[in-house]
C-alpha cells in the first residue's frame, strides 16, 4: 500500500486520509464497533467470509485517528438474513464491500469526518473497479451519519431503513430508573424478578476469560434466536469465543439448577456497556421470565459499576419501547460506480419491508 510504519503498510493521500492493512495504533472511537479493541478482535473472527479488508483513517485529535474498516465479504450471515427477509438473495453481488461490518448493528455511527467518507468511498470504488465486487454498502448510520455521507459522496443508489437500535442513559440510581417505567410495567417487572428468584433463577456476570467453558451451552440459545426469526445462524462457537477475547467482554449468564437457560454477550467500554447477542431457552420464559431477568439484572449491575449508558441493540422493538428505552433509526446506504436502475425497485422494496417490520406492521 505504501510506506511501512510500525510494521504496517500505509498509504497516505493528499486528501487527508490514510489506508492501512492493520488497525492504527491509536484510535479515537465513536462507539464500541470502531474501537481498536473491537476492530482487532473482529479481524480474528471468521463468521464473515472476507476476501480482503483494510482500514481507512484520518487524524481526529489527541486521542488518535478516526477509523472505518472496509471489508470485501463473500458471505455475511447477518446480511444474508436481511436478503432473505426481503427476497433479494444474491442481488448485491459477490463479494459485497461493507464500510463497517453489518455485525455493528448495536452501535450508532453518527457524523463521519468528510476525509474519512472520501477515503472509504474512493477505496471502495477502486476495489470495485479492479475486482468482482459491484456495490459498497454502508450499514448502521444514524440520520446524522447519512447526512455526512451524502454531503461528501453524493446520493447513493439506495437508502434503506435497516434497523432500530435501543439504549438508555443511566440516572442517579436503579430506583430512579425503575420509576421511568409505567406503573403497570414496573410492578410486572418486580413480580417477575421475584418469582424467578424464588424458583431458583440466578444471573451472574462472568468475565470474558472465565466464560469460555459456557460457550457450548450458550451457542444453541443464540441459534434458537436466529431460527425463531427465520434467519441463518448469526454466530458459531468460534465467533462467540472470539468475542469473549475482545477487551471488556463478559457474559451475562442466567442459570437454574446448574443449567444455562439464558445468556447475553456484552462489552464494557469506558462508562458504556453494549449488549450484542445472546438467547434464552424459550421454555423458561413463562415460569422464569428469563429475558426480563437478564435485562434488569444487567441494568442493576450497570448501576453498581458506575456505567452511564447501556446500548441494548435491535429487535424486540415493542418490548423495548414499553420498557422506556430510546430508539435510534439506523440506515444503510448503497453506492455503485454508476447508476443501477436494475436495483432501484429492489432497494425500495427492501426499505419498505424492513421499515414495516420495525414499525410492527
| Strand order of the biggest β-sheet | 1-2-3-4-5-6-7-14-8-13-12-11-10-9
Shape by Cα distribution: globular
Structural class: alpha+beta
* Beta fraction: 25-35%
Oligomeric category = single chain
Q: Give helix and strand order, one letter per element, not per position.
A: EEEHEEHEHEHEHHEHHHEEEHHEHEH
Compute the average pLDDT. Answer: 91
Roughly how many Å apart are the termini?
A: 48 Å
State the major sheet: 14 strands, mixed
Low-confidence stretches: 1-7
Q: How many beta-strand runs? A: 14
Structure description:
- With about 350 residues, the protein is an alpha+beta fold.
- Helix content is about 40%, strand content about 30%.
- The protein has 13 helices and 14 strands.
- Helix 2 (about 75-85) packs across helix 13 (about 340-360), helix 3 packs across helix 4 (about 145-155) and helix 6 crosses helix 11 (about 290-305).
- The protein is globular.
Amino acid at each position: 500500500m505504501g510506506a511501512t510504519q510500525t510494521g504496517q503498510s500505509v498509504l497516505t493521500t493528499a486528501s487527508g486520509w490514510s489506508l492501512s492493512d492493520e488497525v492504527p495504533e491509536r484510535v479515537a472511537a465513536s462507539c464500541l464497533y470502531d474501537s481498536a479493541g473491537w476492530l482487532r478482535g473482529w479481524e480474528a473472527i471468521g463468521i464473515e467470509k472476507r476476501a480482503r479488508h483494510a482500514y481507512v483513517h484520518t487524524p481526529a485529535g489527541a486521542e488518535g485517528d478516526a477509523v472505518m474498516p472496509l471489508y470485501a465479504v463473500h458471505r455475511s450471515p447477518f446480511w444474508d438474513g436481511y436478503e432473505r427477509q426481503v427476497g433479494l438473495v444474491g442481488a448485491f453481488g459477490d463479494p459485497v464491500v461493507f464500510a463497517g461490518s453489518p455485525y455493528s448493528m448495536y452501535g450508532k455511527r453518527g457524523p463521519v469526518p468528510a476525509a474519512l467518507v472520501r477515503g472509504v468511498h474512493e477505496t471502495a470504488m477502486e476495489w470495485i473497479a479492479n475486482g468482482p465486487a459491484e456495490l459498497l454498502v454502508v450499514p448502521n448510520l444514524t440520520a446524522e451519519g447519512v447526512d455526512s455521507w451524502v454531503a461528501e459522496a453524493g446520493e447513493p443508489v439506495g437508502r434503506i431503513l435497516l434497523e432500530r437500535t435501543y439504549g438508555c442513559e443511566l440516572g442517579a440510581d436503579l430506583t430512579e430508573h425503575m420509576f421511568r417505567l409505567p406503573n403497570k410495567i414496573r410492578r410486572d417487572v418486580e413480580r417477575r424478578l421475584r418469582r424467578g428468584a424464588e424458583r431458583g433463577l440466578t444471573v451472574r456476570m462472568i468475565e470474558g476469560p472465565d466464560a469460555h467453558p459456557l460457550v457450548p451451552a450458550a451457542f444453541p440459545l443464540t441459534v434458537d434466536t436466529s431460527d425463531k426469526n427465520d434467519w441463518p445462524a448469526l454466530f458459531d462457537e468460534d465467533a462467540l469465543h472470539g468475542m469473549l477475547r475482545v477487551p471488556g467482554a463478559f457474559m451475562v449468564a442466567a442459570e437454574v439448577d446448574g443449567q444455562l437457560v439464558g445468556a447475553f454477550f456484552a462489552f464494557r467500554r469506558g462508562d458504556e456497556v453494549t449488549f450484542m447477542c445472546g438467547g434464552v431457552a424459550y421454555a423458561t420464559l413463562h415460569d422464569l421470565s428469563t429475558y426480563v431477568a437478564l435485562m434488569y439484572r444487567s441494568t442493576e449491575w450497570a448501576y453498581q459499576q458506575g456505567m452511564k449508558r447501556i446500548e441494548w441493540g435491535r429487535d424486540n422493538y415493542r418490548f423495548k419501547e414499553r420498557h422506556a428505552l430510546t430508539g435510534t433509526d439506523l440506515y444503510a446506504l448503497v453506492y455503485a460506480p454508476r447508476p443501477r436502475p436494475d436495483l432501484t425497485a429492489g432497494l425500495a422494496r427492501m426499505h419498505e419491508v424492513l421499515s414495516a417490520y420495525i414499525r410492527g406492521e
